[in-house]
């Protein structure tokens, strides 16, 4: 399966996207651009500036100017009000943002609408949090008064992936701006359009120029320049684990604060006493949502052997019912992968699964029909009789592929769940609350759910153990990622 060359649609208008630097809509300094492609139609829909190190320098200067200027004198409550206006503007432009995202990455329109709504909710949450970032007084041994101050770090670099472009941006922007930092947001090259629109809406919301800058361009140049820049005090990154490792190396130069949300290989652990019908009804979405391009995807089903056959049958039946189709159709549940290149990568994994002896139960190929001919579609795919040492059980596929692995005892389930370098999320299905809690305590993951698949709550911490990341986004904990803690001791003598 090869990647066809994308071209503009005859007669269609191509969006001339610009970066946002110091409140201005600008091209890259050297004038270069890159094509932005709709993966469902394989057409070029926009041209975006191909930013590089010089553009990052310019953005860091603008962000530093903003940090030193008016912004630093804004009381926290004013930052909160601006975030509230930002949230309102996202709601006002919900349909526009959703259509843009769907056209850009092949995400079903219903999911894009859900994502845009969640962005508005995240900004609303941090609007309320802005004036709740405070220190403490500490009874130290000496007789004076000891107090702590929570202060913004300064210029922060926010590097985000293409699978949830707006949402990942909001998880970083919300707490960063609430805490009084200025930011440079770099979207992934596949998905620059909603980040640019967020930059424009931030200006409309009244954030001073330079508080939020958006630099588009490749990770290896623009992204690396942000991660290495001496003027950036912190880098927050979401993406692949290997990129996260590179960011840590680049950030070492000026000992930047680093927070990382990386890959996953999360388990769905199904015990024999679980509500198996409910598991099968709800769980296809835990791995096939966003075409499997989800860091929290439950891409391994660990199932107790006595119900293995029944669970595979129920899950396969539910998977066949998942509606794959045109991302712009509100009934579509699974659209396209982000690109043909990504589809090739996933198809290679399907091939590896077959070669390693796993049994293909559902999918494993693109859907048939003329309506699927132009897009990077792939059917939801279920492999049974997988062992934890196969590549499809070990590596993050980032596509609509799930591996079913049977187990005999709870201890074995926990061992298999933890036998991965990742530790992001997971679910536990059982009617026995003690077993559920024992398992939840033993699984080395940052976010777990019991008898459901939800991983993300705006108000609760989100992040990974082990090679799934460093730090916790969302909730009040995220503010710690964007503040320095200063201790001040006052001699009262
Ligand atoms: P990626 O690592 O390829 O790219 C992410 C971002 O980093 C992009 O903006 C990219 O341009 C930039 N980048 C790439 N190389 C860089 C470098 N050398 N220096 C600086 N920046 C660089 O990831 P992706 O393919 O866009 O996203 C998919 C990955 O993201 C998956 O592994 C997925 O699990 C992970 N993810 C994790 C979470 C989480 O919260 N844990 C959420 C979503 C996605």
Q: Can you give a write-up of this model?
A:
With about 500 residues, this protein is α/β, with parallel strands linked by helices. The protein has two domains: about 5-260 and about 470-485, Aldehyde Dehydrogenase, Chain A, domain 1 (3-Layer(aba) Sandwich), CATH 3.40.605.10; about 265-455, Aldehyde Dehydrogenase, Chain A, domain 2 (3-Layer(aba) Sandwich), CATH 3.40.309.10. About 40% of the residues lie in helices and about 20% in strands. It has helices at about 55-70, 70-75, 75-90, 95-105, 110-130, 165-180, 195-205, 220-230, 240-250, 275-280, 285-290, 310-320, 340-355, 390-395, 410-420, 435-440, 480, and strands at about 5-10, 15, 20, 25, 35-40, 45-50, 135-140, 145-150, 155-160, 180-185, 210-215, 235-240, 255-260, 265-270, 300-305, 360, 380-385, 400-405, 425-430, 450, 470, 485-490. α3 packs across α7, α4 (about 95-105) crosses α5 and α5 (about 110-130) runs parallel beside α6. The protein is globular, with a radius of gyration of 23 Å. The protein binds nicotinamide-adenine-dinucleotide.
Detail the topology: elements first, then pairings.
Layout: E1 7-8, E2 15-16, E3 19-21, E4 24-26, E5 33-38, E6 43-49, H1 53-68, H2 70-73, H3 76-92, H4 94-105, H5 109-129, E7 137-138, E8 145-152, E9 155-159, H6 165-178, E10 182-186, H7 193-204, E11 212-214, H8 219-228, E12 234-238, H9 241-251, E13 257-261, E14 267-270, H10 276-282, H11 284-288, E15 300-304, H12 308-320, H13 340-355, E16 359-362, E17 381-384, H14 391-394, E18 401-407, H15 410-418, E19 427-429, H16 433-442, E20 449-450, E21 469-470, H17 478-481, E22 483-490
The structure holds nicotinamide-adenine-dinucleotide.
């Amino acid at each position: 399966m090869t990647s066809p060359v994308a071209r503009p649609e005859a007669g269609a208008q191509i969006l001339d996207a610009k970066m946002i630097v110091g409140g201005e809509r600008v091209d890259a300094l050297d004038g270069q651009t890159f094509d932005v492609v709709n993966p469902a139609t394989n057409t070029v829909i926009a041209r975006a500036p191909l930013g590089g190190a010089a553009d990052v320098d310019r953005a860091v200067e603008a962000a530093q100017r903003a940090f030193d200027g008016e912004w630093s004198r804004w009381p926290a409550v004013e930052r909160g009000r601006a975030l509230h206006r930002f949230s309102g503007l996202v709601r006002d432009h919900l349909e526009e943002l959703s259509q843009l995202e769907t056209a850009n990455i092949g995400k079903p329109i219903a999911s894009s609408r859900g994502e845009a709504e969640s962005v508005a909710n995240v900004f609303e949450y941090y609007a309320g949090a802005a004036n709740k970032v405070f220190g403490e007084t500490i009874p130290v041994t000496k007789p004076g008064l000891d107090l702590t101050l929570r202060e913004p770090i300064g210029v922060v670099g926010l590097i985000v992936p293409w699978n949830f472009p707006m949402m990942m941006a909001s998880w970083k922007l919300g707490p960063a701006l609430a805490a009084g930092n200025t930011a440079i947001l770099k979207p992934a090259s596949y998905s620059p359009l909603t980040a640019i629109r967020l930059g424009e809406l931030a200006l409309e919301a009244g954030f001073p120029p330079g508080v939020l800058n958006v630099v588009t361009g490749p990770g290896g140049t623009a992204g690396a320049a942000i991660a290495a820049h001496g003027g950036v005090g912190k880098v927050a990154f979401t993406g692949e684990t290997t990129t996260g490792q590179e960011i840590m190396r680049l950030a070492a130069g000026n000992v930047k604060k680093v927070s990382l949300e990386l890959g996953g290989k999360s388990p769905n652990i199904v015990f024999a006493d679980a509500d198996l019908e409910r598991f099968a009804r709800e769980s296809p979405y835990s791995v096939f949502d966003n075409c499997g391009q989800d860091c929290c995807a439950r891409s391994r089903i660990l199932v107790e052997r006595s119900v293995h056959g029944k669970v595979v049958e129920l899950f396969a039946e539910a998977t066949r019912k998942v509606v794959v189709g045109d991302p712009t159709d509100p009934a579509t549940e699974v659209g396209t992968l982000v690109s043909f290149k990504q589809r090739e990568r996933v198809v290679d994994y399907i091939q590896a699964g077959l070669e390693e002896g796993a049994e293909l139960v559902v999918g494993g190929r693109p859907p048939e029909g003329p309506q699927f001919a132009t897009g990077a579609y792939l059917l939801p795919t279920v492999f049974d009789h997988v062992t934890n040492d196969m590549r499809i059980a070990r590596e993050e596929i980032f596509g609509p592929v799930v591996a079913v692995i049977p187990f005999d005892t709870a201890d074995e389930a926990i061992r298999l769940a933890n036998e991965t370098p990742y530790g992001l999320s997971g679910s536990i299905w059982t009617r026995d609350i003690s077993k559920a809690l024992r398992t939840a305590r033993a699984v080395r993951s940052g976010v777990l759910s019991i008898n459901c698949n939800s991983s993300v709550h705006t108000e609760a911490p989100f992040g990974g153990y082990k090679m799934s990341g460093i730090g916790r986004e969302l909730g009040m904990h995220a503010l710690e990622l964007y503040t320095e803690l200063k201790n001040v001791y006052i001699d009262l003598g």
